[in-house]
Design brief:
3 helices
Length: about 100
């Protein structure tokens, strides 16, 4: 569509508005169920009775969870060594700082 063609732009705009209005009219029949509260939707479904828990034999019982800290000891990390880039940058900044202090006095 040519940016200077105002008639074509107007037709396109009207077409888009018509599509939006049509979609708004059809929304209720397609997506209206989203407005119904969840309790009302689920209310008709029959809730299943909870199954009674069976007592398992000792050899099938699940053992309680052992804390990880008992087997794994996590120590703090050692300090990260300074890289060459960091060392050069710090020295450069110190030199610049000294230079600015000396020149501004």
């Amino acid at each position: 569509m040519d940016p200077g063609d105002f008639v074509a732009q107007d037709k396109y705009w009207k077409n888009q508005i018509e599509k939006e209005q049509d979609a708004a009219k059809r929304w209720a029949e397609r997506w209206g169920f989203l407005k119904i509260p969840l309790e009302e939707l689920i209310g008709d479904e029959k809730k299943e009775d909870a199954k009674p828990k069976l007592q398992l034999p000792d050899h099938l019982q699940i053992r309680p969870v052992t804390p990880v800290e008992k087997y794994i000891k996590v120590l703090p990390s050692p300090p990260v060594p300074q890289t060459t880039q960091g060392f050069i940058e710090i020295n450069t900044n110190r030199k610049l700082h000294r230079f600015f202090i000396l020149t501004n006095e």
